[in-house]
């Protein structure tokens, strides 16, 4: 049954290749098909239930990762590994420890999606295109994330200056706190309505992958293992 589902997904994707750039799509229930991969993206894991925090998934998803990661490294010893499953920051560390790979070759999807949600919600607030709103969410993905308000700008204009000419849209004293709360609550709202999130994180991971494979030197907000000495 699982093999049939995997094959079905493969065929469905293959049939859409006329609308995309050329790529080879394979599917299998074994790890041998991943041999020689430059980048392995791990999305396996249990989903959050409605009202459940990401951190509550730690042990259950760690057990799953203990089975997956050694096999990926076995068949692709030179690979990079991107972790997407929640809690992504914790599982990125777990993956690094299990894999035995250098820390620079293991990273997570981090707050890249949080930052995208932040820019979208800010753009809605200001009635400006998301591509013209620039800002970052840093820290841990999810509930304890941190918005870097001092770095927010609209087409290069600092938010402090934008606020002066768009005061009617930014009228309440708590609007910044409210907007960040919307960012944090976004996933919970989506899970409540449809059971899971997929498109936002999928697009985020696809963009990160594109940057990596093309070495485009773009900046993304990822989960990484940073030495204390690098912050001093």
TrEMBL record:
InterPro entries: L-lactate/malate_DH, L-lactate_DH_AS, Lactate/malate_DH_C, Lactate/malate_DH_N, Lactate_DH/Glyco_Ohase_4_C, NAD(P)-bd_dom_sf. GO terms for molecular function: L-lactate dehydrogenase (NAD+) activity. Residues 4-108 form the Lactate/malate dehydrogenase N-terminal domain. It is an enzyme of class 1 (oxidoreductase). One of its GO terms (biological process) is lactate metabolic process. Residues 111-220 form the Lactate/malate dehydrogenase C-terminal domain. Coiled coil: none annotated. Its EC number is 1.1.1.27. It catalyses: (S)-lactate + NAD(+) = pyruvate + NADH + H(+). PANTHER family: L-2-HYDROXYCARBOXYLATE DEHYDROGENASE (NAD(P)(+)) (PTHR43128), L-LACTATE DEHYDROGENASE (PTHR43128:SF16). Belongs to the LDH/MDH superfamily. LDH family. This is L-lactate dehydrogenase.
